Batch of 2 targets.
Target 1
Amino acid sequence: MKSLIAVATIAVLAAPVLAQTPTAPPKSKSMVEEAFSKHDADKDGTLSLTEVQAVESKVTQADFDKYDSDKSKALSLAEFSKWVEATMTAPASKPG
Ligand SMILES: [Ca+2]
């Protein structure tokens, strides 16, 4: 009998926890945002070519300009996310 009570107690204690099924946590920061803040060394909310190159040294001015659609010499999150998308969908770079 004791064990039955124990089970009942556990069930009661557990109920509120189970009741509040946590809604799926909002995708914390998106991957793009995370990458963006990683690149944004001075945290001004935009990426300069220097900042991008600090992380990805093979990035050229031409690459940068391609995605700097408003020619502000800085990438906004929107511009950067386009770049990331393009990078993601590009074929894997050759090894070596
Ligand atoms: Ca910056």
Note: The mean pLDDT is 83.
Target 2
Amino acid sequence: MNSEPQDAPANPALARAEEAERLAKEATPGPWYEPHICDDSHPCNCAGILSEGYASGIASVTVSNGLPVSRGGNDAPPKKEAAANARLIARARTLLPTLAADLRAALGREKQLREAMMEKITGCQYDLKIARAALEGRE
Ligand SMILES: [Zn+2]
């Protein structure tokens, strides 16, 4: 038995695209910008992701303080990994809906190609029927 909601798309990729679009629509408008922690040449190590409307309030990554949790460590990734996390979060704001749109366009092209191929196959089947009838002397 299918447990999917009635209006769920049959294509799982399309369902993921719709989820990405819904999440993007509800979130703070983009683009989002990576924090200074991502720029090794910048003297500041702030870790807050920015937008046009919020200076660092979108999200923030935490960098390891170098201590084990048992001694007051913050159980956070090292700086390089934390910076990569910040880049991913910031870039995902525009990348996700763009990928969803790219996927919709690709699925549309695939559908057009499939329909064109079906027309060709149908035409070929008709031509083969005529050729077969001619070979069998029925035409
Ligand atoms: Zn800063």
Note: The longest helix spans residues 79-135.
